[in-house]
Amino acid sequence: MGAAGVRRCARCAQVTHREGALTELTGVAGSWAALGTGGDPVRRGSELRRAYERFATAGRVERTVRPVVAESWRRCARAHVTPDGTASVELGDDELGAYRDGHPLSRVMPVIRELMGVYAVDGEHLVAVCDAQARLLWVEGHPEARRRARRMNFVEGARWAEAVAGTNAPGTAVALDRPVQVFAAEHFRRPVQEWTCAAAPVHDPLSGRLLGAVDITGGDPLAHPHSLAFVGAVARAAESQLALLAPRPAEGSVQLTALGRDEALLVAEGRKLRLSRRHSEILVMLARRPEGLSGDELLLELYEDEHVTPVTLRAELSRLRALLGPRLLLSRPYRLAVPVDADFDAAARRLASGAVAAAVSGYAGPLLPGSRAPGVVRLRGRLADQLRAAVIARGDPGLLSDWAYSPWGEDDLAVWQALAAVLPRGRRAAAQARARELDAEYST
Q1: How far is CA 111 from the centre of its chain?
Q2: Do 126 and 271 share a structural domain?
């Protein structure tokens, strides 16, 4: 995409985001923006400082605090984030270069720089891009702002996930998977409270998987709906560029995305289909068994209730065939006519080859987490258990942190104990506290 095309994408994206309208550039982004148009940052900053200290000392949230911030503060308190700490650097220079060169967002950094670079330098701001674990991969912008940001470890390689660095725009945007702005004392950690930041998540345009977030960080002038709309537009432009750069799927190929979502996404014959829960379960089972399954075998894999009749299954398959087309779904036995590239199979292949980091990076969550279909439950548990065991065995602090601070790992005692054992002495306190908390819960 040329510069003009990227700018057109950005202008179009300025009024939309994944869940609907974000904001007009002159409008207000609701509770996701820190200040409305015409808001007084000085008065609001004083109000927030008083509210923050009340929360820090008494655990009480004032009504003046935005709900998105109040909920984030509570999550940070539960994660034992220290108010006066700083972010830790998890990717050293020896790891950072290779990791970010292989990251999908490296391909859209030219677009991000073109749209944000001059704005950041002229406004004495910073542009940051993080991965899905909120590790900062690029931090660029005004030299003086970069120097000041180093004091709070807002640097490349540092992990700014909400659960370890407190409320902040890139970490909270990744945690909530939506654009968000954080102003002054809305930040959970005091060293960050002189800053304002706005961030928006970036997704893989094919699978919808969260890749990371783009962020702009600076002073009080950023506390305006414009900056939130702007960073949202840049994120959408980055996704548009990723779509253009993505290799065209092989003719007849099918992609199935089912990790971390109850309704799988199927891309086939140029169409992108969001499947119902039952159709998602059927496709997962057929993808795992390319040789096909009989009606009786499918019944056992899909239904807990042994009294469900073959008529019920045939009706579901008939609806699925109408959706996919007769060329894709065959019968006798039931099978798919073409190979399926499934994200859960890709994670299993990476793990089997010893590429644990790549397997964890591609693991967006449990397979169809809400499904109770026996076949899905077995497959979901097997993949999660194998990944978890590999992460514990590897003993890598970064991988253990990724798992422990994920929604599926936050209550995993063994992982928290393993993480506490491998972290440097000065960074163990939060992991040890969480491990003790879980141990006490499981002992009662």
Answers
A1: 21
A2: no
